[in-house]
Amino acid sequence: MTRLLSLVFATLCLFGTSKAAAPRPNIIFILCDDLGPGDLGILWQNARSTNQKFPTPHLDQFAHEGMILSRHYCPAPVCAPSRASLYLGRHQGHANVRNNSFDKELDNNHTLGSVMKQAGYATSLIGKWGLQGGSGFPGHPQNRGFDYFFGYLAHLDAHYHYPNEGGKPFYDGYTNIQANLQKCYSTDLITARTKKWIIDHQGSNPNQPFFTVVTYSAPHAGLRVPTNSHLTSTSNYPSGGGLTGGVQWIGTPGNMINTAAGTYDTGIHPDYTTATNDTGSAWPDNAKRHATMVRRIDDGVQDIIQTLKDLNLDENTLIVFTSDNGAHNEGGADNVGAYNPTYFDSFGPYDGIKRDLWEGGVRMPTLVRWPSGITSPDTASAHPSQFHDWMATFCDLAGVPSPALSDGISLAPTLTGSGSQKNGVVYCEYSVGGSTPNYAEFESFKRGKSRNQMQFIHIGDYKGVRYNIGSHSDDFLIYDVVNDSKETTDLNGQSGVPSQQDFKNAVLRVRRAGSGYGRPYDSAQIPPLTPSPVTNGLVYRSYEESYPWVPQFETNSASNSGDTLTLDLTKRTRDDDIGIEFTGYLDVPSSGTYKFYLNTDGKAIVRLHDALLIDADFNYSSGSEVNSGNIPLQAGKHPISIRYIHSDTTSHSLNLLWEGPSISKQAIPASQYYRDGNPAPSPPEANDDLNVAIPTNTSILIDVLNNDQDLDGLPQALSIQSITQPSHGTAVIESSQIRYTPSTDYAGSDSFTYTITDGESTDSATVTLSIQDNHAPVATADFLLLRSNTSKSIDVLANDNDSDGPNPIALESVGTPLHGSATISNGVILYTPSNNYTGSDEFTYQVSDGAKSSTGQVRVQISAVPDFLWVPMNEGEGNSISDVSGYLLSNTASGSWTPGKYDFSLNFNGDAEQVEITSQTYQPPLGKSERTVTAWLKPNSNQPEIATWLSYGPNNSGERFSARTELKNGDIVLRLEIQNDYRIGSTKLDDGQWHHVAMVVEDLDSNGSIKLTEVKFYVDGVLDSISEDGGGTPDLNTGSSTTMMIAGSPHSDKYNYAGGIDDVRIYPTALNASQINELAGRTPGTDAWHFQHTGNASPTQADWQMDEDNDGLSRYLELALGGRVDLPDYHLLPQLIPLDTSSAEIIFNMNLNVLGEINYQIEHSNNLQPDSWNNLEGILDIETHPQIPGMSLGKMRITLDSGSPTLHFYRLNIGNQ
């Protein structure tokens, strides 16, 4: 908060007194020449799995202490236009230097130097310039806002890294000092002079912030390296750094810097002198030289940072490090060959190099360091930005508004984490002969692609780029450069992706033809927008400030704002030191070529869309007329902004004129200006609310506005104006609704009318009501299964209902269980069993509809904790999967619930359906431990060749445990894989039947390790013969992982299982053949019930016959009839209920959860003899049990022989299916 307040105060002081009272950051902008996006260790080199790589340790640390801008773009893929856009704050659709205009004079207008100087900064540029112009150097940096210049003026001169030995002019200000620079290597010269300038400035004016641009001429060819003056076995750079070490400025002719000694161009970095590639061959000399040049920059940057630290300036100095374009492949020095960027992949993970508009040519290696300003160091921002954004950014940090002439937006919110980051324009147009290099690393369709006229623009995360443009109708290639930075997949025509027309419209709306550069799309007419609704006029905002230039007003607060029909300067709030901005749409009556004219007493900038239309700012003479040149426009409404400033006491004037098709030169009439606006408000519409039901003796809130409407919502939101009173109650307005209360004990019909308004018009409607006796809500019994010593929530309201309100049913209270506690939390009941308790429990709860209440019951079963993983997969619906004890394993399971081997199972589609179980929920057997995994499988015949039904462990040798199936010789069989080894069975599984499968991992030779050859497979309880072993060497050594999957593999989704899976188990021991055979023959549903109620997972016949609660029902009958093993149940037996003299109904409990394992049969006998019982055939109706949760009632109607004295006996036979 302190920093934000300081910036605001600095802005006021600058404009009010031209002095800044708050500390503002010093700013250093470091620009390299042809440094590729892959030339930094942290961005690419460190990740290369080859010996052909080099480090940049200091720049890596720079990035860790600051921020990486991972989607920062240069304006053009070559030197001069890229630098011109940087200094002017304008992209290549507006800059006066484009294409390959080396040494062309930079436009005499606002520059980084001039705006920072105006903001109160000391300014310098040290290094390469290349924008000086012809005779007399009119574009000299000291003529473009920089207080001091030191370096190469001419573009080509900077290719000679020893200016004296190369015979190339090198300037200190306007003086050529080449003759004094013996053995001075350019990188060292630039570093030393930068340090010296900072030191001198701090000594002479320590309270003035400074701005310096450091433009290294490396690693551009020629491939020259430093002298060997300080060459040791570990370094070629002077030791130390800062004030007392590193490269030092001496200033003596012939000995200007401390590295101007030894033999020039021999100081290859010792790390690279004997470097070899992966085959043992020595690096070629050009590679050693390139790596050395980059390493020298790395050392130089650190040397500058150490200087800042020594001067106590480091904390509040912002440093930007970047490059002017992508990696080069140009000539070396003397007999050294041209640099080959493929040797180190200097283009990084992208395609393209210098002069390409592919990402490798324009996405720059950009780092920003500002210890006191970047609040989240060691981070990266993928927000797209471009060089022209730095002018707006530095102005923002310096406390001045950016010139309106600039195309950029401030990146300060990205850097500081404060404020909202706006989206800017990322655009380039460029023309050059030749083609993209034919590098194998590049996508085949780009190799040798002709360049010529090229263009790209970003729309969101999408980039449209086109090469060899013949006309504006040529299509763009469209890429999602966030997820496809190598630009491999053209998304043209895909849903959700900007269209060809979107990109073609966008490029025309951001640029201007001119500056002596012809483009094939210059004459294409700029398309309008289709805003709706609109009304005549413009929006104005007035500002009270003294501005040094026409600003981007967005960073200021308006003193006045509103609507106006034309450019009305009387909307100002005072006469002097003011600014006004007008925005809206210009309605172009017909398509054609237009020309615009402007004259004003002050200064002004006009933009149409995002394109500059008229510049009447930096070089403008008050009262003169400037024009736009010819502008091709389509008919329609085009966004327009006119920014105007006035400072002195002269009269105020601002006139904008046009001429075009059938229009002679004239002031633009007010009728052609539009702004966003709405037509006259439409009237509201009130609709009747019919048959509103309400119980007697209750009140109800009726949202009558819910079905009323007002099409435009104007002039204000709908509200209730008045009510006529009903005959049998009262009605009042309450919180934009109507509360109706019937008279006491009244039942019948009632009605009233109400009137609504939108603030201008009204309408009325009628509400009719039916007041009825209230019914209590129905509370349906619930069942809760959980394991001991855990808590679990149950939504008891989910199966409760209420037919007539008046309010939604809600929990009122909960009773006290015998063996735990139950509390209401967020509309559900949380049950916690007593410590270590297993067995049955129950409690009641009460629900209310606001008028009446009902009581429900919850039966609870607290299960023991199993000593192995057992997943019955009997939920039957939803996405949750629990183990046999009710413990939740996953709530994101996918697949379809279908009948299983017994009860339910999950069927998977082989694509993205699976069950994920995290290690926090369950940790399977790891390492070399023995184990047994079993399941019931019913695989689809069309599943993948190799499909995984259970897998866990990392994808390393021996560490991934994958139970799979494989299509082998036309049959699907078992396969176990542990990464780098496998074992395959032989029994066919894809016959449309369920099969019990088991894999037993056992240390058969007791040597402490397990090979896959020791693993046994079983199918349907029978040992499966092995058809193939992988012959791999790794032992089974399963590693830990965050996720175990059923029907999928954590390392890849292409191996997902297709088919049914039921009753998955993982035992932490190796089961023997007898146990596997028994397991294949058991019924898991009944076993699960037995375990939940007794803790025994493998009950015998004797176990099922036990009756510990002495209620006459064995455990088996308790299971079948819905009883409990630890509490007597005397109401579970079947009942015969006479219906009339000739018929009766037999009612009995049914457990549908094990219907596939238990059979229910009504039998009849006349004499009770054992052989007299016969199955009774009839229609069986099944309905939900009203009292026992999870159970059903079976009802069978029988006919009675009332005319015969013969006795009839009926019984319910419950047995195995």
TrEMBL record:
<dbReference type="InterPro" id="IPR037524">
    <property type="entry name" value="PA14/GLEYA"/>
</dbReference>
<dbReference type="InterPro" id="IPR011658">
    <property type="entry name" value="PA14_dom"/>
</dbReference>
<dbReference type="InterPro" id="IPR000917">
    <property type="entry name" value="Sulfatase_N"/>
</dbReference>
<dbReference type="Pfam" id="PF00884">
    <property type="entry name" value="Sulfatase"/>
</dbReference>
<dbReference type="InterPro" id="IPR013320">
    <property type="entry name" value="ConA-like_dom_sf"/>
</dbReference>
<keyword id="KW-0732">Signal</keyword>
<feature type="signal peptide">
    <location>
        <begin position="1"/>
        <end position="20"/>
    </location>
</feature>
<dbReference type="InterPro" id="IPR017850">
    <property type="entry name" value="Alkaline_phosphatase_core_sf"/>
</dbReference>
<dbReference type="Pfam" id="PF07691">
    <property type="entry name" value="PA14"/>
</dbReference>
<dbReference type="Pfam" id="PF13385">
    <property type="entry name" value="Laminin_G_3"/>
</dbReference>
<keyword id="KW-1015">Disulfide bond</keyword>
<feature type="domain" description="PA14">
    <location>
        <begin position="533"/>
        <end position="672"/>
    </location>
</feature>
<dbReference type="Pfam" id="PF17963">
    <property type="entry name" value="Big_9"/>
</dbReference>
<protein>
    <submittedName>
        <fullName>Arylsulfatase A</fullName>
    </submittedName>
</protein>
<dbReference type="InterPro" id="IPR052701">
    <property type="entry name" value="GAG_Ulvan_Degrading_Sulfatases"/>
</dbReference>
<dbReference type="InterPro" id="IPR006558">
    <property type="entry name" value="LamG-like"/>
</dbReference>
